[in-house]
Structure formats: C-alpha cells, structure tokens
Design goal:
This protein is of the alpha+beta class. The chain has nine helices and 20 strands. The strands form four sheets. It has a six-stranded mixed β-sheet, with helices on both faces. The protein has a five-stranded antiparallel β-sheet with strand order 13-12-11-14-20. A five-stranded antiparallel β-sheet has the order 15-19-16-17-18, with no helix packed on it. α5 links the parallel β7 (about 155-160) and β8. The relative contact order is 0.12.
C-alpha cells in the first residue's frame, strides 16, 4: 500500500530541536524503503509515528489514501518488528505466532492454516512445536517476522530487526527479508544505520540527519550521485575522501581546484555549477574506489607515500600521505602494497564530487532541485 507522510513534525519536551522536522515522503505500493541515518536522526521516530506508537505534533500520515494519523495502532493495519524481539516464554513457537489471531477470535482452522503458511514462508515450519527457549537468535527473529505476518498487514515496519544478530546471521536474515518482500509484494519500511544493509535491501533509500530528509533515491543514486556533502560522507564504507579548497578560473574558461600542497583542473561537468555559486570555496570529494595507483606522475596525478595498509580480504584499504592530506584508496589485495612505499594516485574525473562549501549542496544539482 502507498504510504504518504505530509509535513510531519515531532518534538520531544527534553530537546530544543525537532526530532522529525516537517518531512514529506511518498513510499509507493510494494516498495521496500529504507530509512538510513546515524543515531538520533529521526528515522525510528518516523517509523513509530507510522505505527501509531508516537503521535505527530503536526502533519498527516496516509496509507492507501486512508488518513491514519489519529487512529490507534491496532486500527492502522500495519505490523512492526522491533530491534529487541520478545516472545511469550511459556508458549511454543506455534502459539507465539498464533497469539495475534486468537486475540481477534479467528476460527481454529483458519488460525492453523495461517500459522503454517507464514511459518513456511520464513522457513520455521519445522520449529512450530519447539519451546521458544530452544530457538536461536536468528530463529527467534523469524518467529517475530511470522507473528507480524499473520495479521496480513498492509505495511510492514521494521526497526533495526537485525542489529542484535551476529554478522553471518545478519546476512542470512537480510536475504530472507528480501525474499519475503518479493514473495508477498507488500510495502516494507525498514530502519537501519547500517549502510550495507540499506544498500542490499532497499528499492528506495531515505537518508536522514537531524530530523530532516537529506536525499531520497535508489541505492545507486545515493552512492554515485549524493545531493549534498552529508550524504556523500555518510553513505559508503570506507568513507569518501573529502577536502575543502578554493577554485579559480583558468585561461581556457575552465576551473582549477587549489588544495594545500597541490592543485588540479576540474572536469567540465562542474563548470555550470561553479558559475552559480557566490563564493570560491568548495568541498571536493572522491571515493576510495575511484582512486587507482599508477606507475608515473603526470597531470592531475598526485605523488605520495603509503602510510598504512588494512587488509579487507580480496581488497586492501591503503592510506596514502600527499602533502598534509591522507587519502583512503581501495586496491586489489594482489597488488602487495606495503607501508613506506612511494606511489602515484590517479583520480577518476568522472567520479569526482564537488559541493558548495557554504550550502554543502552538490554542484551537479541546481539549488531548486535540492532538499527532500
């Protein structure tokens, strides 16, 4: 079902700023949308307002064009899976899943059919008679998913449901949630601070910070076309290399970027954006994956020295000192780079990013197109 948030605001008494600051968002029917951001950015508060566990100070929430803003949680036809899942310890797995159906007084045959259907969907049909004390963390989270599913909600809400699991289980459950979304065709709204989780799960990613939506887009868009410096820095592991410098025009009608210790020409695709900004200072950025080691120095190639090498398995993250700057660079582990070695860095011009130092907006996006 289509979920629409209109001018949604939430303030808490102990804070001098809005936890959610007049956000507008549309999540289409059948999408898996991920609210991504650091702790305290407003993503869980937004989810709790959709669930009815928090009441907005202003704004409206609709699901399938039905205004649910003032409805009780039980009347919203949504189901929420929490970070800290809980089960009734005196009941077995079957009865934990069936509990919401007994509460609405469904017939026993319908309860049994529904429980077995959803248990099969999340691969726990073989655990139905097991005591909940005998299930693992991953199995318990599947029970929580099944208990949410039996209510046949219009929208699934998930608040960091994988954060308490170990790394291997997180990957496994991530795959299960993606498959569950595909099988049901339902609308999912998933909250996480984990970028890898967001990028692998989401059809749409909503990046939040300080109660505001910073960018809405596909995983590809928020990674390769960040609309502001926050998104560029927050999305991606390891983080984007970002430096503040000055720009000046050159004799050929282009621009040069001046950073302490070096300078180079900026690609033509930034020229229109640079012509519109009032100041001369910009934030320049490039991801570690967009830098490569080359054999010789040359135009727009910087020379430096490897300071540190971190093994990441098939890849290494190396840190290269150039003047007073330290660049993170991703290289193939087979390159056998060692600390103390001199090297030359080539920056892929097509993957450079540039932001106005004052507004922190991308210089590839017109100002009127910015915002949530």
């Amino acid at each position: 079902m289509r979920v629409v948030l209109k001018d949604l605001v939430k303030r808490f008494a102990n804070s001098d700023r809005a936890a959610v600051n007049k956000i507008n968002l549309v999540i289409e029917d059948g999408e898996l949308a991920v609210l991504l951001g650091p702790s305290g950015c407003g993503k869980t508060t937004t989810l709790r307002m959709i669930a009815g566990l928090e009441q907005p100070d202003s704004g409206r929430i609709t699901i399938a064009e039905r205004d649910i803003t003032d409805l009780a949680p039980k009347d919203r036809r949504v189901a929420m899976v929490f970070q800290n899942f809980s089960m009734y310890p005196t009941m077995n797995v079957y009865d934990n899943i069936a509990f919401p159906l007994h509460a609405v007084k469904l017939k026993r045959g319908e309860i049994d059919r529904t429980v077995r259907e959803v248990a099969a969907l999340v691969n726990i049909d073989h655990l139905l008679q097991r005591s909940v004390r005998q299930v693992s963390g991953g199995e318990a989270q599947r029970v929580a998913l099944a208990r949410a599913m039996v209510r046949r909600p219009e929208v699934f809400l998930m608040d960091e449901p994988l954060s308490n699991l170990d790394a291997k289980l997180r990957v496994q459950l991530r795959t299960e949630i993606k498959r569950l979304h595909q099988d049901t065709g339902a609308t999912f709204i998933f909250v996480t601070h984990d970028q890898e989780e967001a990028m692998t799960l989401g059809d749409k990613i909503i990046v939040m910070n300080n109660g505001d939506i910073q960018q809405v887009g596909t995983p590809h868009e928020v990674f390769f076309a960040p609309q502001n410096a926050f998104v560029a820095n927050f999305v991606g592991t390891p983080s984007m290399n970002m430096l503040t410098g000055a720009v000046s025009g050159d004799n050929g009608g282009g621009y040069r970027l001046h950073l302490p210790g070096f300078e180079f020409s900026l690609p033509a695709r930034f020229h229109a954006g640079l012509a519109k900004i009032a100041g001369t200072h910009v934030i320049w950025g490039i991801r570690p994956e967009a830098i490569r080691l080359v054999a010789e120095a040359g135009e727009n190639i910087l020379s430096g020295e490897v300071e540190l090498v971190e093994a990441l398995g098939s890849r290494d993250l190396i840190f290269v000192r150039v003047a007073e700057h330290l660049f993170g660079v991703i290289v193939d582990a087979q390159e056998s780079v060692a600390a103390g070695e001199p090297c030359h860095l080539h920056f892929a011009g097509a993957q450079m990013h540039l932001f106005d130092a004052d507004s922190e907006r991308s210089l590839l996006h017109a100002p009127e197109a910015e915002g949530a």
